[in-house]
Amino acid sequence: MFLNKNNKNFVFNEGYSNKKNLFKSALGSKIFYKGSKYIDLSLGAGSLILGHNSSIYKYAIKNLTKKNISSLAAPNQQAADFAEVINKIFPQYSKFIFCNSGTEAVFKSLRICNAISKKRMVIAVTGSWHGSVNQLLFSADKKLKPVSLSDGLLKEDKQNIKFIPYNNIKISKKILEKYKSKISCIIIEPIQGCLPLYNAKEYLKFLCEFSKKNKILIIFDEMITGLRVDGKSVQSYFNLRPDISTFGKCFGGGMPIGIIGISKKTENLIKKNKKKIFFGGTFSGNSISSYVGMLTTKYIIKNKNKIFPELEKKSIFFQSKLNTFIKKNNINAYVYRFKSILRIVFTRKKVSNRIQRDFLELKNLKNINKLRNFLFKNKVYYPSSGIIFMSECTTKSDLEILIKLFKKGLNKFF
After folding, report:
1. DSSP code for 41
2. Would you give the distance in Å from CA 188 to the centre of its chain?
3. Is residue 171 part of a domain?
4. Which residues pair with 183 in a beta bridge?
5. Is residue 142 located within the same domain as residue 207?
6. What burial class does residue 348 get, using C-beta atoms within 10 Å of its C-beta: 0-12 exposed, 13-18 middle, 19+ buried?
7. CA distances from 325 to 334, 366, 394 (A)
8. Judgement on whether residues 184 and 231 belong to the same structural domain of the protein
């Protein structure tokens, strides 16, 4: 063991600059820091429907050693079995591609679209987040121009991305009509963590119909919503059929995973055009993630009639209690929700996309950070992303504590 005498932090990833704020373990709805329990509102960035270290997760981990399941770096039975389970949830997809992460699933999806279309322009929808993918590591300014979120991106990446505004059919249609002959694909996070709304169906339907009419591939990035939405997805909920979808998070059951679902039409296009597309990687479709993910997914599906109504009940309770308090006390905020995905937006004005949200929240950024610090001091982990998730393990006692503390913090800082 190497000792760090100067107590320096050698990790260069985001979030590790302050070594004293490192979490060590978690159980149920709690995450542990310096021996104290914190109510976790992140829950693995939405991955853990069953909470931390669930009984099925522990059973799966125990079985890994019992059955001598190892990372084979070769085609394995676990991945094949898991694909069958996923196909029962999404029968509209004829093939699944397993990846190491959500980011990998997204950039391999773009690779599919580029290969089929022989084009490079990507239409991204404002407010969507697609991980650390170079081609998509941009946000849109007020004029829908791409703004780099990182150094090290290629000039071509910025030239090849165009933004359309979420939930705005009129402007989106105008932009799509202008570039339709150059578009490789449209990619969207159908329900967004930045603003989880229920009124997106017509917009999503418009995108799917436009894509079909103009022979443009459309990708639904359901990394967050896959499995979390009633044991299925947003596309299932709204009865929509994108060409390609990316899933992950909840399907991993606590293990890193990314999954690409491709429709029969997309599969046929690959075969018809004799496209050679590389999907491999040491841990792509690895037996460990596949096995844990499969057991967790099967458990969730088997118990979905109990799990998801309870998740929604908890989410509605949290949302309604806070919004009633917010309205009564004239606080500049509102709690938005889609199923068990929630977000507090710090403005009373109605917002329909992230550009509006960011503009209206700008003057409140300092107070938002004060609220986050206040909650942390009171043993609540409110993630920097601002997205709040509920889990099977989130208790009534947790909710009562959360509501009490949020009320106090909102009243103090807003």
Report:
1. S
2. 11
3. yes
4. 121
5. yes
6. middle
7. 10, 22, 21
8. yes
Q: Rg for the chain (alpha carbons), in Å?
A: 22
Q: Are residues 325 and 262 in the same domain?
A: no
Domains in the chain, number:
2
Same domain? For 296 and 318 the reply is: no
Question: What residue numbers bound the domain in which 178 lies?
Answer: 69-302
Residues 105, 97: Cα–Cα separation, whole Å: 8
* Distance in angstroms (rounded) separating the CA atoms of residues 393 and 79: 28
List 72's β-bridge partners, or say none: none
Closest CA to 241 of 260, 265, 225: 265
Asked if 340 contacts 389 with a C-beta cutoff of 8 angstroms, the reply is: yes
Other Cβ atoms within 10 Å of 310 Cβ, number: 16
Same domain (yes/no): 216, 353 = no
193 in the same domain as 131: yes
Whether residues 317 and 391 fall in one domain:
yes
Is 58 a member of any domain?
no
End-to-end CA separation in angstroms for the chain = 48
Of 302, 328, 363, which residue constitutes the final position of a domain? 302
Q: What CATH number does residue 46 fall under?
A: 3.90.1150.10
Q: Would you give per-residue pLDDT tens digits along the chain (414 residues)?
A: 333 445 577 888 888 877 677 899 999 999 999 999 999 999 999 999 999 999 999 999 999 999 999 999 899 999 999 999 999 999 999 999 999 999 999 999 999 999 999 999 999 999 999 999 999 999 999 999 999 999 999 999 999 999 999 999 999 999 999 999 999 999 999 999 999 999 999 999 999 999 999 999 999 999 999 999 999 999 999 999 999 999 999 999 999 999 999 999 999 999 988 989 999 889 999 999 999 999 999 999 999 999 999 999 999 999 999 999 999 999 999 999 999 999 999 999 989 889 889 999 999 999 999 999 999 999 999 999 999 999 999 999 999 999 999 999 999 999
In a domain, 7, yes or no: no
DSSP assigned state of 28: B
CA 414 – CA 331 distance, rounded (Å): 6
Task: Tell me the pairing of strands 217-221 and 183-188.
Answer: parallel
- Domain final position from 276, 302, 328: 302
The encoded tokens of residue 240 equal: 């929509």
> What gap in Å lies between CA 342 and CA 319, rounded to an integer?
8
Length of the chain: 414
